[in-house]
TrEMBL record:
Organism: Oxyrrhis marina (Dinoflagellate)
Protein name: Uncharacterized protein
GO MF term (any one): tricarboxylate secondary active transmembrane transporter activity
This protein's record includes keyword Chloroplast: no
GO cellular component: membrane; mitochondrion
Solcar repeat coordinates: 57-140
Classification lineage: Eukaryota, Sar, Alveolata, Dinophyceae, Oxyrrhinales
Entry keyword set: Membrane, Transmembrane, Transport
Amino acid sequence: FTNETTGQAFVNVYKRAGITGFWQGVGPKMVESASKGAVLLFAKEGLINAMTPMNMGPTLTGVIAGAGAGVAQTSVMGPCTFIVTAVVTGSGDVNVMNKIKTTWAEKGIKGFYPGATAIAARQASNWASRQGFTEFVRHRMKLALHGDENARLSVAQEAAAGTVGGTLATWNQPFEVARIQMQAAANEGKPKMSMVSTISTIAKEQGPIFIGV
């Protein structure tokens, strides 16, 4: 999989499993998408409310709140992303319920969290970066466009700030590559490797690890 371009990946998925191949593991992915947003908002708002009286500034507050909320997301993303990765990268006879039952029977709850360090690193850096970059851009836009740091941005301006923040936050793609590799290896029963060792191995074998960025 790692040698494919984005276009080749789409073509190969279609050849292997048809149009339904693009929705493999959609069940756990829906659970992940529904729950991780709730976890993020609850944790982020709690941290922002706790730090606001400290007058740390919007950018630093956003970075810390985003990082903490991102780490909290690991609780639900670990099991969900592992099951999706197992279904997508495993043999054709792997299905969601069988994988859940097998993993629970063999390893218990711990078995659902291979690559958890990579997920935590990715989510913490992702939301810290996204929140921090977005708040920085918002602040600059308020001053540049309205001359007042307390001004309200339009919907289009807010969207633009979020787009810039999200784009800049993709610097952490190596963590996502490591997460997929660690979970795929766990699904295949390979010896466990740390996140650092995984990233180092991928870099040595394939060069810069920004696959799928």
